[in-house]
Amino acid sequence: MIRAVVRGFGAALPKRVVPNAELEKTVDTTDEWIVQRTGIRQRYIAGEGETTASLGEAAAREALERAGLEPQAIDLIIVATASPDNTFPATAVDIQARLGITGGAAFDMQAVCSGFVFAMATADAYLRTGLARRALVIGAETFSRLLDWNDRTTCVLFGDGAGAVVLEAVEGEGTVADRGILTAQLRSDGSHKAKLYVDGGVSTTGTIGHLRMEGREVFKHAVGMITDVIEAAFAATGTTVEDVDWLVPHQANRRIIDGSAKKLGIPLEKVVVTVDRHGNTSAASIPLALHAAASDGRIKQGDLVLLEAMGGGFTWGSVLLRW
Ligand code: ACO
């Protein structure tokens, strides 16, 4: 049985760090409020010349280097993003060209904060069915450019960045002891659209629009949706919460992360948290967190790693993989 195994990982952040104190000068907020409600202490904000494609390219280059692969070895690029450089073509083809890759397929995946989980699931399906052999899966965002910087209820929450992994098709035994993606569980429910959306678009206003969110409503659904897809991943693989070495959640809010871990019975020492440093970077948050925990030696080869996300749509999903 073919498994999609992580062979390399990378990350990129904009140069500029924006601590909460800086936002106190522009909107009616305080460091204390932001830390208490979200756990966020700072975020990175893209400057001139820094875009979703440039951040994604940098993350991809590091992932390729760690994998020991030349760009041409890649035959699939999926970029999870809700903040593309252009309406079209896909940011993935931009990154493909920047890397000098001329073969294979490249396309974007739009599932907002769940984008990286959806992209991993898609790449896994391509690799397992032989449609591709080596995939770059990238989560890259410049959400700062979708924010209404006068709206304190949203502008304090988000940040920019990118993360990437190289997945390679490797023959496995078909057991949960295999390295690679063991299961992916994806869900969407468009009836929640109005709770978290961007109020513009090509076919409606002809503008980019701004992110709008009913934070309390999102919060209300988050923990239940996250635990649903995690329990589905355990059921699909016959694993249990005790088998998990690392939970790498989407980094939206410290309270959502802690609430989900508590409900599932996962001790906080096994949870990777970067929301304090990065804010919510949407589709980039999981690969940024993976990068943090794998590069400092916490996540080791053979560890069982559980990814989960929930976001606009709503969309939500989990990926269980052995590193
Ligand atoms: N600074 C100071 N006060 C603020 C700020 C701010 N930045 N933002 C809102 N407030 C005020 C509100 O106006 C409100 O004041 P009022 O009581 O006088 O009306 C008060 O703080 C409480 O507001 P709530 O919205 O009830 O605060 P809550 O405790 O729900 O926290 C938050 C808000 C942090 C957005 C929370 O609802 C949340 O985390 N929701 C989840 C949404 C999320 O993380 N979305 C990310 C995108 S989706 C995803 O990635 C999963």
Spell out the key features of this protein.
lipid biosynthesis, Thiolase-like, FabH, Peroxisomal Thiolase, Chain A, domain 1, four-stranded mixed beta sheet, transferase, five-stranded mixed beta sheet, 10 helices, binds acetyl coenzyme *A, 13 strands, alpha/beta, 323 residues, Beta-ketoacyl-[acyl-carrier-protein] synthase III
Q: Compute the separation of the termini in Å.
A: 17 Å
Mean pLDDT: 98
How would a textbook summarize the main sheet? 5 strands, mixed
Uncertain residue ranges: none
Shape: globular
Taking strands numbered 1, 2, ... along the chain, how are they ordered across the largest sheet? 1-7-6-4-5
How is the CATH topology of the largest domain named? Peroxisomal Thiolase, Chain A, domain 1
CATH architecture of the largest domain: 3-Layer(aba) Sandwich
Number of helices: 10
Residue share in helix:
25-40%
Q: Based on DSSP secondary structure assignment, what is the total number of beta strands? A: 13
Secondary structural class: alpha/beta
Quote the beta fraction: 25-35%
How many whole angstroms does the radius of gyration measure? 18 Å
Q: H/E order of the elements?
A: EEHHEHEHEHEHEEEEHEHHHEE
The CATH superfamily of the largest domain is Thiolase/Chalcone synthase
The CATH class designation of the largest domain is Alpha Beta
How many discrete structural domains?
2
Which kinds of small molecule does this entry bind, naming each only once?
A: acetyl coenzyme *A
Domain Beta-ketoacyl-[acyl-carrier-protein] synthase III C-terminal: 235-323
Region (ACP-binding): 251-255
InterPro entries: ACP_syn_III_C (IPR013747), ACP_syn_III_N (IPR013751), FabH (IPR004655), Thiolase-like (IPR016039)
Catalytic activity: malonyl-[ACP] + acetyl-CoA + H(+) = 3-oxobutanoyl-[ACP] + CO2 + CoA
